[in-house]
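Hey,
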Amino acid sequence: MKKTDLVIIGGGPAGLAAAIAAYENGIRDILILERDVALGGILNQCIHAGFGLHRFGEELTGPEYASRFVKKVLELGIPVKTGAMVTDLTCDRKVTYVSEEDGKVELQAGAVILAMGARERSRGALNIPGSRPAGVYTAGTAQRYVNIKGCMPGKNVVILGSGDIGLIMARRMTLEGANVKAVCELLPYSGGLARNIAQCLNDFNIPLLLSHTVTEIHGKDRLTGVTISEVDERRKPIHGTEQYIECDTLLLSCGLLPENELTKKAGIRLDRVTGGAVVNSMRETSVPGIFSCGNVLHIHDLVDYVSDEGEVCGIYASMFLKGKCETANDTIALKPAGIVRYTVPQVISSKDEDVRVFFRVGENKRNAKIEVLSGDTVLLSKRKQRVAPGEMENITITKSMLEKAGAELTVNIGREDQ
């Protein structure tokens, strides 16, 4: 069994940022394991602009954004294995991977960073009635066909789900000559960024049908159409609202699921809402020496935040390897309340410096007031004109606030006029 100080599973934006940060903090024995044939992750097929505005102050395409990190990794000489699929991870940080070049390899890692990203919900997870004709794709698969393979999935398109990938593909398919007839969204609000709704749907006059879903798929060999229906407040189809739309392609953009099979194998505690690991402010999981970042931890809307989180993992993993990173005993639990669905991290310490906390809400709200409370004591109150499920929020809990905190802090959102 080979020994490696730091093993990073995943060569996307989170893993690359983590590797660079660890190297710059003195760790030299690093190995990045990436199952694809190239580094960069999902960014390689995201040829649209809009990346890097927060981090670099300029608008980049996905490949341009990724290339900056890939170039840095190669310049630093950080070892990389592509085409390497990790098949097992244990709680004592044993990593097993297989590749065409090396066969089966077992590694004993001093620390592990999980950066495996996420996968899309497939038709099987959605239980849509109908046969199984060709022409039904996840939005990400269609994106790969168009942007990487140069192949159009179809000409007349319906999109189910208004996640960012679905919105972007509505525009992309339109630009390639397809007729996008509708984007249907089960919820009464869109799950995508406001800027994507404006730039990808409104600018191209593509209708967004809220509180609608696909209730039947038609066609034997090839998709011939779909039936859509309105849904009630319990998200159940309303009888009598059925509408048939003729199409040859259905794209599914119904959310992402963190790729946490390896996380489960290591016996790491998971958050029931995010589907990712429960972590502290260092992004360390419930298993010491194993850290998690990026979409495998919780689903992000901006890659800039993914890179920031990867850097946090790289810094603290390097401190762990140097024996300078100890799990605090005086933990403070962060609890979501009201329309706040979750927080990351879920656990912090009174000994932490300023902690940046990310969270998502479960519904749209205007004139919102973000609060952090210790019991009935308000430690932080921040006004926000609007919060929405499609846009991740973040606040900073300062060291002075932590010194006043009890065993639990609550993140809540109320109305500014309350």
